[in-house]
Amino acid sequence: MALLNGTSTLSDQVYSAIRQDMLDGNMLPGAKVSLRSLATTYGTSMQPVREAVARLVADDALEVTPARTIQVPLLEQQLCDEVWSVRSLIEGEAAALFALHASDAAFDELHELTAASHRAQFHGTPAEHMRSIHNWAFFVSENCGSPLLASLIRTMRLRGAPMMALALHTPAEPDPAFLQFTNQIMQEIVLALRTRDGSRVRDLRRVDVLSYQRYLYSRLGWTLKRAF
């Protein structure tokens, strides 16, 4: 997959491509990362790949093992608990700010993203499921008026994406009742956004994030614990 030419550097493009693969669930925890394979995949030299991987290591999205291999981290539950707790706080706040700052056109686009997420969760692949959920959250954060929140949300979602993918790839009985519940919550968020009720949006978004955490943990066989 050759990278497109543009104003960004090759290392920026490789970084974005690897990050998107992680967000789509294409890199599961424990997967080894080969610099040479990445260079071949993206049709570039080793140096941009090294720079991109170094950035992902700095983001804690990848790790260097004692044996000096690079891999996708397998997060312990305690750290996952913290990631989800932080996400519930910052994504709730971003949604509340979105209610105050977003245009009517943005509300219309979010309605379409909600419908797309519903379709992907019920009928899509794990990658389509993950991408639709991330797209929804990123759209809200990038239109909430706070670049800092948007950056934090992207970092936290990148950190947790491989474990999310692991849960979605773990064999489990279908749970259509939960999927219906979480999509109903998203619909309620959209309705609350249109009335610009930031407080209600914040609470609903936190419920949405934490209930999804419970769903993924049940697939992993984990007992839910709150970090704070």
Strand content: under 5%
Helix percent reads over 70%
- Give Rg in angstroms: 18 Å
Instruction: Report the sheet with the most strands, covering strand number, pairing sense and barrel closure.
Output: 3 strands, antiparallel
How does this structure look, described?
The protein is globular. The longest helix has 25 residues, at about 75-100. The chain has helices spanning about 10-25, 35-40, 45-60, 75-100, 105-125, 125-140, 145-170, 175-195, 200-220, and strands at about 30-35, 65, 70. It contains 9 helices and 3 strands, in the order αβααββαααααα. The chain is mostly helical and about 230 residues long. Strand 2 (about 65) and strand 3 form a beta hairpin. The mean pLDDT is about 90. About 70% of the residues lie in helices and about 5% in strands. A 3-stranded antiparallel beta sheet has the order 1-3-2.
In short:
The protein has helices at 10-23, 35-42, 46-58, 77-101, 104-123, 126-142, 147-169, 176-194, 198-220; strands spanning 32-33, 63-64, 70-71.
Question: Which features does this protein show?
Answer:
three-stranded antiparallel sheet, mainly alpha, 228 residues, 9 helices
